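step: validate -> pass
step: tokenize input -> pass
step: predict -> running
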Amino acid sequence: MGNVRNKRNVSFFIIVMAIPILSFTAFKWYEQHVQPLPYFDKGLSIEQQGKPLALSGFKFINQDNAPLDSGFVTAKVWVINTFFTSCPTICPKIMANMLLIRQAYRQDNGVKLLSLSIDPAHDTPARLKQYAALKGIKMAQWQLLTGNKKDVYHFVRNTIYSTAVAGDGGEGDFIHSDKIVLIDGRKHIRGYYDGTEAGEVQQLINDIKRLESEH
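step: predict -> pass
step: emit ->
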């Protein structure tokens, strides 16, 4: 009888311990795969019912020295990051992870990628095109952008909010962000991800699918 009672106690203990673990696992799975992604306004998460206005349009110059505006991403899920071609620190890692995102959706015309240079004085269209060729970037889906520095910095600070560092876009101003920003087809920001972290980039890849399922 004692052995039976002990076995029952052990079984009960295992069940009691397993319930919170299974509950937490189920919650995390729901959070990462089913629950709608949050909306962001000025870099902060807000409730869906209070979702912000759509992002304002933009117009920059791409690697082909041609104007590219927000029409490129209209009704698309899009991913945007900042970089500069001579960056020796975080940019190579971020751009390598952008390439992974592109590879995951290379046959999906509903997903677009943008990489905006924060060093427009040096990152001319010709330099961007050379960089794209070096990195194997496919231009139909992924565009490299440059433009007037004040316009670029205003967009980064006041449209996609990928940095909290203040500045005026003047000659001595410089920003450097590790963030990759996810934006839905209605031009709402839906996520910020550390572009240097493999786990966050994989979550971004998964979250793109979740956004596509909303439409």
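step: describe -> The beta strands are 39-41, 44-46, 59-62, 67-69, 77-83, 111-117, 142-146, 179-183, 189-194.
step: cleanup -> pass
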